[in-house]
């Protein structure tokens, strides 16, 4: 299994990356998967050039193939002005709108205050629904107060949400057939000619 983790945090260290890492760890604790972390901040110029030129360069194309070829995706964005970041949206805009069809996706977001948490439902979830992905029911939002060092209602609540969302994604991954690697075609089952002929005999008689 391949799990692509896309994070759109702009700073280093980033709370979006921290949330993405915790989500990925919770998923891989339940299902074995190869994790590829993609920091969109490193691809900002490549994404902008893709809009100007009309096609992605080699580096961006490789990242897009990693995301669209993954068996599952964890996508985390910071919330700005009540919605996903421009970089987050721009990256998924350069992906073909059918490339994530049927792919399980766990969405997460971070922000300075909990009042932005609904952005996951009115902005992020509809984006992946449009891309025909299968978005898990639980979305995970982490406000600044969720990162407290002591054990409290805020911190424990975040941990429970992460565990629940990761469990939902892991369950979907368990029931998927791993995608073929890039450049490989899925092998078709070869039915021996004798078996094909035997199946036709009742129809001929």
From TrEMBL:
Entry GO MF terms: oxidoreductase activity
Keyword Metal-binding in annotation: no
Residue span(s) of domain NADPH-dependent FMN reductase-like: 1-147
Superkingdom, natural source: Bacteria
Keywords recorded for this protein, A-Z: Flavoprotein, FMN, Oxidoreductase
Residue runs in coiled coils: none
Descriptive protein name: Oxidoreductase
Record organism: Nonomuraea phyllanthi
């Amino acid at each position: 299994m391949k799990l692509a983790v896309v994070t759109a945090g702009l700073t280093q260290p980033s709370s979006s990356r921290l949330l993405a890492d915790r989500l990925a760890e919770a998923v891989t604790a339940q299902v074995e998967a190869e994790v590829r972390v993609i920091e969109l901040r490193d691809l900002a110029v490549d994404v902008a050039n893709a809009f100007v030129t009309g096609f992605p360069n080699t580096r961006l194309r490789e990242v897009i193939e990693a995301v669209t070829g993954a068996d599952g995706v964890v996508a985390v964005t910071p919330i700005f002005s009540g919605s996903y970041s421009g970089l987050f949206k721009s990256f998924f805009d350069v992906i073909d709108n059918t490339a994530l069809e049927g792919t399980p996706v766990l969405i997460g977001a971070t922000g300075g205050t909990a009042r932005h948490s609904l952005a996951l439902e009115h902005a992020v979830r509809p984006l992946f629904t449009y891309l025909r992905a299968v978005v898990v029911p639980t979305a995970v939002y982490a406000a600044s107060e969720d990162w407290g060092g002591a054990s409290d209602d805020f911190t424990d609540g975040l941990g429970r949400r992460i565990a629940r969302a990761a469990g939902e994604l892991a369950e979907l991954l368990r029931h998927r057939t791993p995608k073929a690697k890039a450049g490989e075609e899925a092998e078709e089952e070869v039915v021996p000619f004798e078996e094909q002929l035997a199946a036709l005999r009742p129809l001929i008689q």
